[in-house]
């Protein structure tokens, strides 16, 4: 099998974050600041990523702006020819913190919003008055001329406000909007009963996004991520395992996706012990579900096997206890009933916020 | 618009978008927010001349001379491509 060149690096610099969103994509076991990679290791990794064919570096977290060395890392990534995307909550972003990042070569910012109303934003972020700081962050980014994407994660509690989300994006001068239905891993899975939208809500969200596409045309790029629970076929998670995407955790573990640390019985390669190229091409973890040879039936004989790559390994693990099973979202999976049962389970329960104290270590 | 007006426009990359040599894959790519795509050698030869100063007329003249090809053929290709990329938030045209 020819191993493709990776396209994207998601550099999760830290798990520290002022917000505690109950659908955070970080693992339940958050990493302590003491285990974060030092600056010089990140510098080497960024150079190695560019040599390996990575085109875009996404600095994320947690909140990447919690790292004091972020301008240095951005400068190094830009020097290596990487397109630098900052994925931020905006809580720590003001002129004083942002201008050094612009000078260092940030190409684009993806700013998260939890809702359009201050009350809704406080409820999800678990922080008072976050919205005003995000609005100010957006103004600073646009005033510096840096292209801005607004990212809205939607779920049962805010999905009906999609039209207002587009209004806000237009008002703030964003060039792109992402409306992303919550994905149910880790923290999101813990809160699934409260967050999963109804089918009627999903269908309304599709109509709202279609209306926005018609309204803005080429003026605004719109990305819409649907919740796969209501789909008949699974998503091609990460564009296929070990095909396009590298995730590096705050402590330096190299993963095919940000949820992969949940997979039992594998040793996780780390940049402290090995180079990125060797990890990408040779490690057990990256080769485990690469291509189609690992697939069970019904994937093995399926004509979609090189379109959806068997769906999401972490979803198969989280819901079936087996990372090597067909994604249960698929109508051809023998375990599709698990997804349908989850849809039927929806209930308004209190949210479990993303914080260290809300996860017992085993 | 008359073709002289069309060609008086000056194309430039939007902020956050650039043409880049991908040395690992040995090809030209356009990098943009949350996406990167391969550009074929013909498109790359046009985009290499987009600098925010050169008019479309100047770009077309240069290409017609480099490729020793009929000018109207080149002009049509260049204008079509620039308009397509303007609709996709890659280029912007100043008149």
TrEMBL record, chain B:
Keywords: PQQ biosynthesis
Gene3D superfamilies the UniProt entry points to: Coenzyme PQQ synthesis protein D (PqqD) (1.10.10.1150)
Pfam name, any one: PqqD
Top-level taxonomic group: Bacteria
Pathway listed: Cofactor biosynthesis; pyrroloquinoline quinone biosynthesis
InterPro entries: PQQD, PqqD_bac, PqqD_sf
BP term (GO), one: pyrroloquinoline quinone biosynthetic process
Sample GO molecular function, one term: quinone binding
Subunit (UniProt): Monomer. Interacts with PqqE.
Protein name: Coenzyme PQQ synthesis protein D
Organism (species): Acetobacter nitrogenifigens DSM 23921 = NBRC 105050
């Amino acid at each position: 099998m020819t191993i493709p060149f990776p396209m994207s690096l998601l550099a999760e610099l830290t798990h520290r974050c002022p917000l505690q969103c109950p659908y955070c994509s970080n693992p339940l076991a958050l990493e302590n600041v003491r285990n974060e990679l030092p600056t010089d290791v990140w510098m080497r990794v960024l150079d190695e990523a560019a040599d390996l064919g990575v085109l875009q570096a996404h600095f994320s977290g947690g909140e990447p702006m919690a790292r004091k060395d972020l301008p240095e890392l951005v400068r190094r990534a830009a020097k290596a020819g990487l397109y630098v995307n900052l994925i931020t909550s905006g809580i720590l972003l003001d002129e004083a913190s942002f201008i050094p990042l612009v000078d260092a070569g940030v190409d684009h910012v993806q700013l998260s919003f939890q809702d359009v109303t201050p009350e809704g934003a406080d409820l999800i972020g678990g922080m008072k008055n976050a919205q005003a700081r995000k609005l100010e962050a957006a103004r600073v980014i646009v005033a510096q001329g840096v292209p801005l994407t607004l990212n809205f994660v939607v779920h049962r509690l805010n999905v009906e406000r999609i039209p207002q989300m587009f209004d806000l994006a237009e008002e703030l001068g964003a060039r792109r909007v992402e409306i992303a239905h919550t994905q149910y891993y880790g923290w999101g899975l813990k809160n699934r009963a409260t967050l999963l939208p109804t089918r009627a809500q999903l269908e309304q969200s599709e109509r709202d996004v279609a209306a926005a596409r018609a309204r803005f045309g080429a003026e605004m790029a719109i990305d819409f991520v649907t919740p796969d629970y209501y789909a008949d076929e699974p998503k091609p998670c990460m564009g296929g395992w070990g095909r396009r995407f590298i995730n590096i955790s705050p402590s330096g573990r190299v993963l095919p996706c940000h949820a992969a640390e949940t997979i039992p019985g594998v040793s996780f390669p780390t940049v402290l012990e090995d180079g990125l190229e060797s990890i990408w091409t040779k490690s057990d973890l990256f080769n485990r579900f690469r291509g189609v040879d690992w697939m069970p039936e019904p994937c093995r004989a399926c004509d979609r096997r090189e379109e959806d790559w068997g769906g999401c390994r972490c979803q198969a693990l989280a819901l079936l206890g087996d990372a090597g099973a067909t994604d249960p979202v698929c109508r051809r999976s023998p375990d599709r009933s698990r997804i349908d049962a989850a849809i039927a389970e929806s209930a308004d329960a209190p949210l479990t916020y993303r914080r260290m104290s809300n996860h017992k270590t085993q | 618009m008359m073709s002289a007006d069309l060609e008086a426009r000056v194309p430039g990359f939007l902020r956050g978008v650039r043409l880049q040599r991908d040395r690992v894959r040995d090809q030209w790519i356009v990098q943009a927010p949350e996406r990167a795509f391969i550009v074929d050698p013909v498109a790359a030869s046009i985009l290499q001349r987009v600098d925010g100063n050169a008019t479309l007329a100047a770009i077309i003249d240069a290409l017609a001379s480099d490729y020793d090809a009929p000018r109207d053929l080149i002009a049509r290709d260049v204008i079509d491509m620039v308009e397509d990329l303007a609709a996709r938030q890659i280029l912007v045209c100043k008149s």
